[in-house]
């Protein structure tokens, strides 16, 4: 049996990575990335940083001046706002309008990128759920949802039905997607279509036990995959009810696991 990686002691030479969110109790990045850093014998640690929206810019600007901090991971609700605090943005960020990671560059500037969508699709494929040729519905077009929408279209989803309670945000994302994948993204204010292959919750609904369902699984067809991007709790109410109806379910942790190789390359972790 292979021994678990030895924890790397935190010392004066340790490099830092922050996970920014509000809340942060649910974040799983430290639990996945710190063992990876230890296995790679990197003198580095990932720590959660709880930052409310009113103080996001102050927190980010302060962290950008911490000389031994090499990067930031970004979760709800900051993914759209944080892109404006970077000096440069990757192509994906420009398309989807949000970022989930910032990296300090050699010149001291900060580069924003988004791997949520790439990770989500990688997680789907690893679980045997290929979105190519699918009819997919996605609820929530915020920071993660916008990236997932673009990645699903890039992976070959035939039709993507988008839902959000903010009509302006929904229309803006649909227009940006249509510029790259004409005629395949459709904004809707109504209930989920009854003939989709994949239904995705990309909203925060499910973080708390009393949250309402983002959509009703009872209208979905047999064989539909119901996916949630929430990582904690692992079994959200949506996934429990979908499983009880015999639908296939896909957990939120797969999206983060699908991003690990992208993070390793982005931060040159080897």
Structural summary, described in words:
By secondary structure, this protein is an alpha/beta fold. It folds into 2 domains: 15-114, Leucine Dehydrogenase, chain A, domain 1 (Rossmann fold, 3-Layer(aba) Sandwich), CATH 3.40.50; 117-255, 3-Layer(aba) Sandwich (Rossmann fold). It is built from 9 helices and 12 strands. It has helices at 29-39, 56-64, 79-82, 91-96, 116-126, 143-154, 167-180, 237-244, 253-266; strands spanning 15-21, 44-50, 69-74, 88-89, 101-104, 110-113, 135-139, 159-163, 185-187, 198-201, 225-228, 248-250. The strands form 2 sheets. Strands 2-1-3-5-6-4 form a 6-stranded mixed sheet. The chain has a 6-stranded parallel sheet with strand order 9-8-7-10-11-12, with helices on both faces. Strand 5 (101-104) and strand 6 form a beta hairpin. The radius of gyration is 19 Å and the shape is globular. The chain starts with 14 loop residues before the first strand and ends with a helix.
The H-and-E topology, N to C, reads as EHEHEHEHEEHEHEHEEEHEH
Low-confidence stretches: none
Strand order of the largest sheet: 2-1-3-5-6-4
CATH first level of the largest domain: Alpha Beta
By CATH, the architecture of the largest domain is named 3-Layer(aba) Sandwich
The name of the CATH topology of the largest domain is Rossmann fold
Q: Determine Rg (CA atoms, Å).
A: 19 Å
